[in-house]
Write a structure and sequence with these properties.
Elements lengths: L1 E7 L2 H16 L3 E7 L1 E4 L5 E3 L5 H12 L4 E7 L10 H4 L5 H16 L4 E2 L2 E2 L12 H6 L4 H10 L14 H9 L6 H12 L1 H7 L1 H11 L5
Parallel strand pairs: 1-2, 1-5, 5-6, 5-7
Antiparallel strand pairs: 3-4
Helix pairs in contact: 1-8, 9-10
Length: 220
């Protein structure tokens, strides 16, 4: 069994990996283990997890994981990256969403410098995956279907949905259902599970390519 650690930024991504990826890959001989990035530490030594992340913390954690797993990967929202991520500021000047992702991922790979590392940056944030189809929202909420469908029609590729404070995928969901009606760690995962991995992979090119790279370790 090949063991792959995926360093994630918070509980939502951890749940997503556990509930949508783990069993899928386990059947193919790959054990996926999500690990939430430690972002701060109390004087007593207890770790806090999730929250604002910097590249310094990410690099240190990835280097620690290298010796304990066959491969390591990441799942961080581009929208939430700190400015110290390599080539992040430069990537902001790109008009093509996939060029943005490639620029940051290539820079990460260069920094970590290991064939065991499979970098992945979620464009633009986790909530974008939920717009792969109206199916998840419709089953979980059962209302405001037309407004969700309008976003899907406007952005048939969810990964290109804007990353501004007003138009990011999460902001669109909050504007449609209300800020108190959508909880990323609960509602977001329910919607994703209702969608299913196959639909998400079909609609989200960059996400699908990441999973293909993980599947490809079996050929190495």
């Amino acid at each position: 069994m090949i063991r792959i650690a995926i360093l994630v930024e918070g509980q939502t991504e951890e749940k997503f990996v556990k509930q949508l990826l783990v069993n899928e890959f386990m059947a193919n001989g790959i054990s996926i283990i999500p690990i939430i990035l430690k972002t701060s530490r109390e004087t007593s030594g207890n770790s806090y997890k999730g929250g604002y992340i910097t590249f310094t913390k990410v690099k240190k954690e990835l280097q620690n994981l290298l010796s304990n797993f066959d491969y390591i990967s990441t799942m961080f929202d581009y929208y939430g990256l700190s400015h110290d991520f390599p080539r992040y500021q430069e990537s902001k000047e790109c008009n093509n969403v996939y060029e943005k992702a490639k620029m940051v991922e290539d820079a990460l790979a260069e920094e970590i410098s290991s064939i065991k590392f499979i970098p992945y940056i979620q464009m633009y944030e986790f909530e974008a995956l939920l717009f792969s189809s109206i199916k998840g929202f419709k089953k979980h909420y059962g209302y405001r279907n037309a407004e969700i469908q309008a976003v899907i029609n406007q952005y048939p590729n969810p990964e290109i949905i804007n990353d501004s404070k007003e138009t990011a995928p999460s902001k669109r969901i909050e504007n449609i259902f209300g800020k108190n009606k959508f909880r990323k760690t609960s509602d977001g995962i329910i919607v994703a599970k209702e969608l299913g991995l196959e639909i998400i992979r079909t609609k989200c090119k960059h996400f699908n390519e990441w999973l293909k790279k993980i599947e490809g370790v079996l050929q190495c």
